[in-house]
Structure formats: structure tokens, C-alpha cells
Amino acid sequence: MGLLATLLLVLLALNMLAWTGGLVDEESSPPPESAPAVTEPPEEPALALPAERPSNEAIAEKRETKRPTQTTTGVTLVLTASRGDCWVEVRAGSSTGEMLYAGTLASGSSLRFNRPRLWLRLGASSNVDLEINGRPSTVPHGTVELLLPDA
Length: 151
Known about the structure:
- The chain is of the alpha+beta class and 151 residues long.
- It has two helices and eight strands.
- The chain has helices at 2-20, 56-66, and strands spanning 75-81, 86-92, 99-105, 110-115, 118-123, 128-132, 135-137, 144-148.
- The longest helix has 19 residues, at 2-20.
């Protein structure tokens, strides 16, 4: 019985030491929950500001000079497959010109071209909407070949 009482006293003493913090190493333990550590955020470097900000007019003038000038010659063509898929072939200048696009234009998709002259072949042309230089244009039904602008 003496051994059991001694073991019970040792366990009670260890429990008391653990509860009061006597068994905790102060250097490696985190701060207690009742007093959270307060850290300040690192200093951010100061941003350099221009001495004088240009007016909005000066900014607009700078942007205007950087924009490329748009030529008004040529054809801007927008094809949109509004009612279904359409097979499309587009060439620069003529039926033997540089191939710009050949393939199926999926329903809901659009293509845009801007060249001095465009040749195109459409299969199922009733499925597409054509916009030439910003204006809607009608297309005959079926498989069609067009040269834009009209010669």
C-alpha cells in the first residue's frame, strides 16, 4: 500500500507542476492564450510620386498620338454563325489569294477580316449573318462565292 500511495503522490505532484507551468520550457513555448503576441507589420517602402500630375487633357493628347491611324480603304467583314454551323473559306484578293481562313464556323461564333479585297465561299450560307463595313448584308442561300468589294 505504501508504494501505491507514493505513486499517487508523484502523479499528483507532476499534475500540479504541469498545471502551473512548472514543466514548460519558457524559451520554446508559445505565449499563453490569454496574452496574444502583438506584432507590427513590416514597413512598406514609400512610393515615389511624380512632382506634378499632368492634366486629363495632356493624358488624352498623349493617347491620341499613340493610336495608329485607321485607313478607310478596304473591306471590314464580320461573319457570324447565328442560325447554325457554316463552312467558310476566306482568301485575300481572289479565289487564288492568300488563305485567311478555311473551316467550319460553329454556331454562335464570329470571324472578322479587314483587307482591301476579300473572296469568300460559304456553305449553308443561310446560317450566317454578314456585316460589311459595319452594315448588315444579305447573302443568297446555299453554297455561295462572293468578292468584296463588288467588282
